[in-house]
Amino acid sequence: MVEVSVFKEGDETLWDAFVTCANNGTLFHTMKFLRYHPPTRFDNHHLMFHRADSLVAVLPGAIVGGQSYQSPCGASYGGLVLDKGLGLEDCIAIIEALVEYCTELGLKDIELTGVPRDYWCSYDDHLDYGLLYHGFQCQSTVLNYVIDLRLDAVEETFSKNIRRDIRQNIRRGVSVQRGELDELDVFYQMLRDNKAKNHAVATHSEEELRHLVRHFPATIEIYFARLEQECIGAIVLFHCNDNAALTFYICHREAFSSFCPATLLIAHLTELCKARGCRALDLGPSTWPDMTLHEGLIHYKQRFSARGMRRDSWKLSL
């Protein structure tokens, strides 16, 4: 029998240790990361699942509008984080406990969005089957494009044009280095300018991003493409777990687009993450939940031999 309890103060060490060793835990599931949000932003309701005396799953989430349990809230990925070695019966029992718990709270639905399969230590379809077994429906799917770092010579799989652009612009003097915290204002202005062209704003404010980079120096990094020490492009790298890293906020200065800063940044991070032992470099989504295709992004990422990996969002009406 699986029992559900609500996360409380004092559980953080146990929670984060479990996430770190779990089959599909990421930085975004840790309490250390989620605490960057102001405590009043979400009605947090994080759940822990025990069988006998063992913690077998956790679920970061919040109650939205007083009637919907949603995971994630305030993070890129959420969903159930599972202990290694769980079988189908275990997953079915954990989801059954979640459904019963939310029903007893009088909630109207449950919405979950997990991580793509490349983030898992050992992937299987037990969790998805368990969701289907209990009546969840896949309400939306996006494709994240992921570079497979397990290949011996990853850059040799890039298209000829990408490899040519890398060689040419290195010869022209473009280099990539990790940025310092005091350069974040330079990065954020570049990001703001890029977003403004599409009438969009960044997910994180400048202060939120500064907080994250300051408090996670080993796992959240900014890299700059430079030409004679002038910043011409930048990207944020989230080292999500030992298996996968995620790129965020790739941007460049329009006047230097002919120097292909984005291409050199991705090539550099491919080499860096492979050297760190990651299996996958996630370049982020290129389709939207309404099934709209960002064809330009898809074409560009596929030139790095990136593969489309599903990120499903599940919903159950109670």
Would you spell out the secondary-structure blueprint of this structure?
Elements: E1 2-6, H1 12-21, H2 31-34, E2 47-51, E3 54-59, E4 62-64, E5 68-71, E6 81-82, H3 88-104, E7 109-113, H4 126-133, E8 137-148, H5 160-171, E9 174-178, H6 184-197, H7 206-215, E10 220-227, E11 230-239, E12 244-252, H8 261-275, E13 280-285, H9 295-302, E14 307-317
Parallel strand pairs: 5-7, 12-13
Antiparallel strand pairs: 1-2, 2-3, 3-6, 4-5, 7-14, 8-13, 8-14, 9-10, 10-11, 11-12
Uncertain segments: none
What general form does the structure show?
A: globular
Mean pLDDT: 94
Which H/E pattern describes the elements? Answer: EHHEEEEEHEHEHEHHEEEHEHE
CATH architecture term of the largest domain? 3-Layer(aba) Sandwich
- For the largest sheet, list the strands in their spatial order: 4-5-7-14-8-13-12-11-10-9
Structural class label = alpha+beta
Tally of strands = 14
End-to-end Cα distance, whole Å, is: 21 Å
What is the alpha-carbon Rg in Å? 20 Å
Domain count: 2
Q: How much β-strand is present in the residues?
A: 25-35%
Helix content: 25-40%
Number of H- or I-type helical stretches:
9
What is the top-level CATH class of the largest domain?
Alpha Beta
Which fold name fills CATH's third level, the topology of the largest domain? Aminopeptidase
Protein name: Acetyltransferase (GNAT) family protein
Keywords: Transferase
GO molecular function: transferase activity
InterPro entries: Acyl_CoA_acyltransferase, BioF2-like_GNAT_dom, PG_Glycine_Bridge_Synth
